[in-house]
Fold this sequence. Notes:
Elements: E1 3-9, H1 13-26, E2 30-37, H2 43-50, E3 55-59, H3 64-72, E4 80-84, E5 88-90, H4 96-104, E6 108-117, E7 132-134, E8 140-142, E9 145-146, E10 149-150, E11 160-163, E12 170-174, H5 175-180, H6 193-203, E13 207-218, H7 229-246, H8 249-272, H9 276-298, H10 315-320
Parallel strand pairs: 1-2, 1-4, 2-3, 6-13
Antiparallel strand pairs: 4-12, 5-13, 6-12, 7-8, 9-10, 11-13
Helix pairs in contact: 1-2, 6-7, 7-8, 7-9, 8-9
Amino acid sequence: xxxxxxxxxxxxxxxxxxxxxxxxxxxxxxxxxxxxxxxxxxxxxxxxxxxxxxxxxxxxxxxxxxxxxxxxxxxxxxxxxxxxxxxxxxxxxxxxxxxxxxxxxxxxxxxxxxxxxxxxxxxxxxxxxxxxxxxxxxxxxxxxxxxxxxxxxxxxxxxxxxxxxxxxxxxxxxxxxxxxxxxxxxxxxxxxxxxxxxxxxxxxxxxxxxxxxxxxxxxxxxxxxxxxxxxxxxxxxxxxxxxxxxxxxxxxxxxxxxxxxxxxxxxxxxxxxxxxxxxxxxxxxxxxxxxxxxxxxxxxxxxxxxxxxxxxxxxxxxxxxxxxxxxxxxxxx
Length: 333
């Protein structure tokens, strides 16, 4: 089983200097690639000078996370791709438990390890935590992270569990499955593209898993922080894209209508918080969604849609009304 650890880079020389050593040290059984998204700093020079065994793939433009991986992975020969953010520090034997799961379970198509916060190593990290889920309305959340509430890692998620989506910060995926679903949807550019990818894979009968025996540490926010209005725009728009593409029509349309109303509430909340740029980001996200609706609708899979996709009816209601901050308190509806 050939595994390739593939790091996407754009002007990330500082990140590569800091985090690449752990990847090289603890990934002896894998080939390591760096896909460069037309960086203008000395990233490529740094890698080629200090790590001659690492294969560098040069993209001609910065097409973001989605296009960068889609184009770069065409030049990677492996059975399993590990898509790894450049701001991730890996741990000893991090690959072995995941490799074991792939070997023992042919249905396992996508796998993620435990994602911990590099700055607070006893806390889960926002991007992925202990595995991703969505609620009935398509809002994503994680074991160990509900909105901005992050749990302390006390070993409560040291298990192997089927989940709904795996984080793009550290995602292992069978290469044949990646190309079977045509890779990431390039309409997303970045953010929630992994939710869509996993959803499409599940609609084709594949399974997504979390392996708690493997863990990595993620810095987070090195591309776009949670305070960046562009991230707000991408998250709101791309979530609507995923619902349009991946649910049966009789379910998708009512949910989209409810989501548009809830997004309006979120915009008003931003106004009261004096975060006017985030309010406008939601407005522009909706305009972009309307503009691209027909294109997204045409991408709907001709497959058996997964109907038991959600973990709870409304994570928004659970968190903001009932003040639930811990995944284990949630009740599956």
